[in-house]
Amino acid sequence: MRIILLGPPGAGKGTQAARLALGQKLEHISTGDMLRTEVSGGTELGRLAKTYMDRGDLVPDEVIIGMIQGRLKGGAGVILDGFPRTVAQAQALDKAFTAAGTKVDRAVYFKVENEELVKRLSGRATCSGCQTPYNLNTAPPKKAGVCDRCGGKLAQRPDDQPDAVRRRLKVYEEQTAPVLDYYRKAGKVREIDAAGPVDEVYGRLAAAVK
Ligand code: ADP
Ligand code: AMP
Q: Is residue 93 classed as helix, strand or coil in its secondary structure?
């Protein structure tokens, strides 16, 4: 099974991808997590990417495609979270999958109102160690600032500051929403209501990928 999670920032893609990966033994690939690992490692790629990420812009297609290419070759099932984010990336993905003799099975679109997205992102905190997402308002860790799962330190993302969030929502509408049409034309999209409790959204996601 090769599944793509589509939707605006804050829609819950990372939260649900982690659950689905555990539940269905699929590999969770998040280009955002990959980039943050490069940033915290201080690599050349990380330094380049950070300038785009901090202001809420997309990292250039050729950088992203080069970074993810090697992870698309394996035979195991995958959940792609945060990729593809442009039509050019979707076309590159199709090409890589075709070369590997496989294809995208389903694209699930997470639908949430903008007001709720802004609320979620303002409270988001992520473990710097294992990337588990928390929400300081609605889903805090047991001990303040510490990851329940691995004991790592929680951090709020620079791009979850209000200016960058506004920019990311605009970039989503302009550059990523067309990806939804790309997969709609291919008949692969299932739309889910991604508002409401995490467990309920998970139920809808599990049904959408059956
Ligand atoms: P995305 O990967 O789509 O950007 P995340 O999974 O990081 O989104 O979720 C964004 C924030 O919203 C996090 O703080 C997360 O804990 C919280 N969140 C995720 N799903 C829900 C939900 N169903 N209801 C409320 N908050 C949620
Ligand atoms: P995310 O963790 O998915 O919210 O991504 C955080 C940031 O990383 C985005 O705002 C972009 O700057 C960058 N990024 C992640 N994935 C991609 C992608 N597929 N294409 C371009 N930029 C990306």
A: helix
* Separation of CA 155 and ligand 1 centre (Å): 15
Looking at the 3D structure of the chain, how many domains does it have?
1
Ligand 1 pocket, 2 CB below 6 A? no
Which residue among 34, 35, 51, 126 is best mutated to probe the pocket of ligand 2, counting the most ligand atoms within 8 A of its Cβ? 35
Residue 133 lies in a domain: no
| Within-domain flag for 120 | no
Distance, CA of 173 to CA of 7 (rounded, Å): 10
Measured distance CA(162)–CA(176) in Å, rounded: 20
Question: pLDDT category, 129, cuts 50, 70, 90?
Answer: confident
The reply to whether 144 falls in a domain is: no
Q: What is the pTM of this model?
A: 0.95
Domain extent for 23 = 2-112+163-209
| pLDDT score of 12 | 97
The CATH number of the domain holding residue 43 is: 3.40.50.300
Q: Could you tell me what percent of the chain has a pLDDT over 70?
A: 99
* Ligand at shortest distance from the CA of 139: 1
Residues 6+ apart with CB under 8 A from 145: 153, 154
Assess whether pLDDT exceeds 70 at residue 109: yes
- In 10 A of CB 16, how many CB atoms? 25
Give me the pLDDT at residue 95, please: 95
